[in-house]
Fold this protein.
Amino acid sequence: MTSINTIFKHKLAQYLAVLLLAYLFFQFGIPILSTIFTGVAAPVPAHLLWTIYMPIVALVLLLFVSANEAAWQEFKAPLRTLVVEQENRRVVLLRRVLLVAVPLLAGLFTFFQISATVTAPAGLRSIHPADPGTITVGGEQFVLQGLRNPLRGENGEVATADIEAGHEIYITHCVFCHGDALNGEGMFADGLRPRPANFTDSGTIAQLSESYVFWRVAKGGPGLPVEGTPWNSAMPAWEDELTVTEMWQVIAYLYHGAGPNIFPAERATSE
Ligand code: HEC
């Protein structure tokens, strides 16, 4: 009968044992030691453990076991048996089990690593947080208070050419998310949280002033204050993509295209 002692004389067993000890040391030893010396547990971050610490230990151990030919042969022998053995049925069975189990485990591990969770983050997202008051777009400062769409005439009318230009911009840039009926059902919509705004709904642009919409179009999701999180909006910032006039054109188109009951809310002027 092979005793524990003879097993641990074998190079492969030593290799695995030291790897295990190193893992235990990094995972538990370092936090314990740091608690003793500094009073604060400082665990090794998992990504460092698996990309740096453990690979280095594994490599150094490989150097150790391959230092001379005899040790290297001894280290390889069981691995070689595992791969090529034909006679010993237990080894053949073990090989078959491993050939199925290893890819399966790797697949499962990868699956759980990348599968997204759909649980809502704690905390509520404010859909229309307060705007920042003043924004800079293309080097120009805009005070949002009282800012009107410069393409609108006295009675709020917009020239057909501007509406058409806005439509074209919408079809080129916005339709993938906000949909061709402006109802937020673009082809990317199902993949986004929060979902793209539905402009035909009375809860979006119909309650907003055009200056607010201008801010949202220019600065997008990245421009939202923290109240607009925890889910980050996929709404792009258009300031580098579109000119100021193009943004006003597409905004005019949003109101025009979303339906007869959708028109800009007047921003309360501070008097
Ligand atoms: C990659 C997808 C995507 C594209 C492309 C996109 N949007 Fe959005 N948009 C969103 C999402 C998601 C929201 C909702 C979250 C938010 O308010 O930021 C949104 C919100 C908005 C809002 C705010 C509505 C409200 O009620 O506050 C406006 C206005 C808007 N988009 C206009 C546009 C315009 C104009 C374009 C094209 C120039 C455009 N979007 C392109 C994803 C997109």
